Amino acid sequence: MRPDTPAENVDHPAEAARLERTAGLYPEDAEALLLQAAAHLELAGDRPAATKLYDRLLSSSDGLENVYLVRALKASNLWEYGHEAEARAIIEGVRMASPRDPAPWVIVAEALESHDELEAAQETFTEGARLLLSDVAEPPYSTHPLLFGRHRVRRMLGAPHDDWDLLADTLHSSPVSLDELHDPKRVWSLGSNNPAELEAEISRLRAELGTYREALSRPFPVAVLHWPTDELTELLASYPTLAAEYPSHEEHLATIEGALRELAASGTPNLGIVTGTVPSYEAFAASEGASPGDVNLLPQYATTLAARGRAVGWPPQRGAACWCGSGRAYEGCHGTAV
């Protein structure tokens, strides 16, 4: 449930405010209206305000028609601005509740997928499919995204087709086949610097989705790659050739901040940080036919993550948590003496 109007044609905060006012006038439609308002707030980048709307719905004394949908949307939104633990808890709660509506399954699975939790995403898509499609002769239209999402994640994981993947292929009506649409090399090619390749990929995605997502229409930021402590430890244990690039985690963090400050001083706009994970990096290396131990692959990986909308803007707003994950405010951490 997201607004259909392209982001550049809408004043999202104003539209969210209008929908909230309308919900007050028509309480019988408040659930749908407030979900649309929350979606506009997410597109405006005001995720805390969107969370407040989800909480308002969940605390409603009237009861919700789609309570698990609201919980799934809240979890997805929370994860996008740093509340991972709470998001994971909500996602687990949705899965345990086994809703009979496919939408919550799709949303929580896509939230896991967007954070490179591909195995967990596959398990979630499969749980939903098993619950809703076992012994069903003809899958309802509302369940098609469940099968298509499962197909996409399994393609990224390199899993062989099973019966549900074949069913997804038969249900898919676009001229672009699911296998081509979900080819990992095509997914990663969205990070290409070649305008012709990008245009071709966007045209193919439009054939399936109707329009490409707002995240793809934003300018790609100049992004610096960040590895959390555990991920960097695993990376260096698996690929020792990268040790010269990352002498220590502390130096790695200092290098990121220094590089971003130099770029800012030179007048480079739209700076950001992308956070890497070892499974995601290995998948990217495989799609490029390269070794993960090749240090020259790292900037390409960072660019690709930024192209997928994974960059967090730098510097953080005043009072916001530091990008490094320490939990301290940026000004009292890596933002000292900015």
Beta strand count: 3
Radius of gyration: 21 Å
Class from secondary-structure proportions: mainly alpha
Which series of helices and strands comes N to C?
HHHHHHHHHHHHHEHHEHHE
Poorly predicted runs? 1-7, 210-218
Helix content: 55-70%
The rounded distance between the terminal residues' Cα atoms is 40 Å
Side by side, the strands of the main sheet go: 1-2-3
Overall shape: globular
Helical region count?
17
* Major pleated sheet: 3 strands, mixed
Strand content: under 5%
Quote the average pLDDT.
84
Folded structure, characterized:
This protein has a domain at 222-332. The protein has 338 residues and is mainly α. The longest helix has 17 residues, at 249-265. It is 58% helix and 4% strand. The protein has 17 helices and three strands. Mean pLDDT is 84; it is low at 1-7 and 210-218.
Keywords:
338 residues, mainly alpha, three-stranded mixed sheet, 17 helices, 4% strand
Q: What would you say about this model in short?
A:
The chain has helices at about 10-25, 30-45, 45-60, 65-80, 85-95, 100-115, 120-135, 145-155, 165-170, 180, 185-190, 195-210, 215, 230-240, 250-265, 280-290, 295-305, and strands at about 220-225, 270-275, 310-315. With about 350 residues, the chain is mainly α.
Which helices and strands appear, and what pairs or packs with what?
Blueprint: H1 12-25, H2 30-43, H3 47-58, H4 67-80, H5 84-97, H6 102-114, H7 118-133, H8 144-157, H9 163-171, H10 178-181, H11 184-188, H12 195-209, H13 214-217, E1 222-226, H14 229-238, H15 249-265, E2 271-275, H16 278-288, H17 297-307, E3 312-313
Parallel strand pairs: 1-2
Antiparallel strand pairs: 2-3
